[in-house]
Specification:
CATH architecture of the domain at 67-207 and 237-262 and 317-323: 3-Layer(aba) Sandwich
Mean pLDDT: 85
Largest sheet: 8 strands, mixed
Bound molecules: S-adenosylmethionine
Structural class: alpha/beta
Number of strands: 12
Radius of gyration: 19 Å
Helix content: 25-40%
């Protein structure tokens, strides 16, 4: 995969959710050792609501690739059986399932889920970033659990503007690491669209706002608080997204289940942990610049511990399954 340097960055980079990987900008002055930097996403100005433009945040495919294995291990497989039951009872299921993956990035959700479901599947991969959609199309899954055919198409656009009409005929909506970068209005629109289409939704790996680093450091809490505030900047929901989604989907009559889906990062995940640390601390400093000097020392020590295999991190996430009332009152 080529690098994030192909993006047309015009302002500071920033980190969102757990999405804090391969990056660019430094938040520290000259002479710093390990720089506190923002990683994994490139913010190209203020967020807009259209297709990818120079004003949206872009995600590095390398970062999405780096986290894919840990994401797969974290996903709440406990939610699969209730989902399978719902899908098995869908009218017209013989023709196969149509699954809309929102904010698909490079397509990791499909690569995880398609081989865990039986039956022919057509995935509609949505993202506003055409660069990521290209990777998603190229790396799409080919077959279902029972060997049935899996096909994909890509759709470039803003998933915050989803309507029930856009989901007509959909069997399932999925998203992964998306909810926390939406705002309340967008989550309400998503819930309303799923309810209108009678379509279940599996919305995974939303940040929960809690991390545990072992061994602990006195600065952990301050960094975590600043990071969470950063996630809530503007109207974004960040760690409040899951409870907002529970309210929104329940309000539309869906049955909602939430299950933890934490990352467990140890010695074997040191590359991901290091990138996560850089982004996590970088976002905290962007939010609270007064942390910069202490955060620089903190990051240097944390990275050294990570490299030595002496650091473990748990990054808490939640997966949510919302089972809408089937359209037509089935
Ligand atoms: C953190 S990445 C997750 C990607 C992928 N789902 C995964 O789990 O690897 C968030 C993705 O959502 C996309 N995205 C964020 N907000 C969006 C919006 N309003 N409309 C369309 N895509 C959006 C981004 O371009 C990015 O690909």
């Amino acid at each position: 995969m080529s690098g994030i340097s192909t993006s047309t960055s015009t302002s500071t980079s920033t980190s969102m959710g757990s999405d804090v990987g391969t990056g660019t900008a430094s938040a520290e002055g000259p002479g710093a050792g390990e720089r506190v930097r923002d990683t994994g996403t490139i913010r190209l100005g203020d967020r807009t609501r259209g297709e990818a433009t120079d004003d949206t945040t872009r995600y590095a495919p390398e970062w999405l690739q780096l986290r894919e294995g840990v994401d797969a291990a974290a996903r709440a497989s406990e939610l699969l059986d209730p989902l399978r039951i719902r899908l098995a009872n869908l009218p017209g299921r013989a023709g196969g399932f149509v699954i809309h993956d929102l904010g698909c990035g490079t397509g990791s959700m499909g690569r995880w889920l398609a081989p865990r479901l039986d039956g022919p599947q057509h995935w509609v991969l949505h993202d506003r970033d055409p660069y990521l959609l290209h990777f998603a199309a190229v790396g799409s899954p080919r077959s279902a659990a029972d060997g049935s055919r899996v096909t994909v198409e890509t759709q470039r656009g803003d998933v915050g503007r989803l309507t029930a009409d856009a989901l007509a005929g959909a069997s399932l909506v999925t998203a992964s690491a998306l909810l926390d970068v939406l705002d309340a209005e967008e989550i309400e629109a998503l819930a309303a669209a799923c309810a209108g289409a009678g379509c279940p939704a599996l919305l995974t790996l939303s940040v929960a706002g809690r991390v545990e680093l072992t061994p602990a450091d006195p600065l952990d809490t301050e960094i975590a608080d600043a990071f969470n505030d950063h996630q809530r900047r503007g109207s974004l929901l960040g760690p409040d997204a899951v409870s907002a989604a529970c309210d929104a989907f329940s309000g539309h009559g869906a049955t909602v289940r939430v299950h933890p889906s934490a990352w467990h990062l140890g010695r074997d995940e040191s590359a991901l942990t290091a990138e996560w640390l850089r982004g996590w601390v970088g976002a905290a400093v962007e939010q609270r610049p007064e942390l910069a000097a202490r955060a620089e020392t903190y990051l240097r020590e944390r990275l050294a511990a990570c490299e030595a295999g002496e650091l473990t991190v748990v990054v808490h996430h939640s997966d949510l399954l919302a089972l809408a009332r089937p359209a037509g009152g089935v």
